[in-house]
Amino acid sequence: MFWLASLFGLMAMGGVMFVADGESDSDEDGTAVGPTSPETDVTIPDLLPTGGSSEGDDILSGTSDGDDLNGGDGIDQINGYGGDDLLDGGNDGDHLYGGDGADTIFGGAGSDLIHGEAGDDHMQGGDGDDRLFGHFGTDLISGGNGDDIAHGGQGNDTLHGDGGDDALHGNYGDDTLFGGAGVDTLFGGVGDDLISGADDAGERDYVNGGDGDDTLVAGANDVLTLGDGEDQVIVGSWINGDDAIELVDFDSSDDQLVLLWDMQNQPDPDIEIEADPEAPYQSIIRINGAETLRVNTSAGITEDDIVLLDQTSSALTGQLPI
Asked: Which Gene Ontology CC terms are recorded (predicted)?
C-alpha cells in the first residue's frame, strides 16, 4: 500500500500586456484546495528584435535561435521566443518570457515577473519579491531572497523557496517543493509530490499535499494537510517539545507516519500516544517525553501506524536538519 522504498531513491511596461496563471490554491477562509483552472496562455506582443544590454528601460526580443539577452539597469521586458535562451533581467523589476526552448532566466535584483513557458526551463528570481511561472516542461525554479510566489505548472517540476516567506505551487505533475527559510506556504497540487518544510529554524510552514500519493517532510512547528491519496508524513529528531507539528487530516487506513531516527547511535525512542482531553478527535504523540505531533483523526492512531526508519539509510537525509 505504501511506498517506503521511495524514501531511498528521492531526492508593463507601457501598453505591454500579459495574462498570468489563473490557478488558485485556497478558499476564502484559508483552507488549502487544489487547482481550480487550467494553465492560462501568456500573450507576448511582437517586438522589434534587439539585443545586448543597456542602462535604460528596454524591450529586448530574441530570435528562433538561442539568444543571450541582458537587460542591465532599468525596468526591462525581455522575450526569448524560440531556441535555448539565456535571459538576465539585471537590476530593477523586470518582465522576462522564455518562450519555446530550454531557457535559463535570471531575474536579478528587483521584484521580477518570470514566465518560462514551453520547454524545460531553469528560473532564478534573485533578490526581490518575485513571481515565477514554469508553465510547460520539467522546470527548476528558485525564488531566491524575498517573498516569492512560484507556480510549476504542468510537468514534474522542482521549486525552491530559498529565503523569505514564499508560496510555492506545484500545480500538475509529480513535483518537488522545498520551502527553505521563512514562513512558507507549500501546495503540492495534483500528482505524487515530495514537499519539505523541514529546512528551517522552527518557523511555521503550511504544507498541503493536494491530490495524489504525497510525501510530506515536516519541519518544527509546521501545519500539514495531507489531502486526497495515500500519503506519508516524515518526522524526526529535529522536532522538540516546543515546536510540535499539527497534522490536520491523518487517516490511518490510507496514510502512514514515518519516524526517522538515528538507530545506529541512539536507543529506540519511547513513543506515547494519548487523547487530547480538550480537543475531540485529536491525539498527542510524545517521543521520549517531548510532544512531537498533534494529530487530528476521527479513526484514531496507534503505534502500529508509525514506522520507525533509520535516518542514515534514507536518501532524504541530506535535506533534513539533522
From this structure: extracellular region
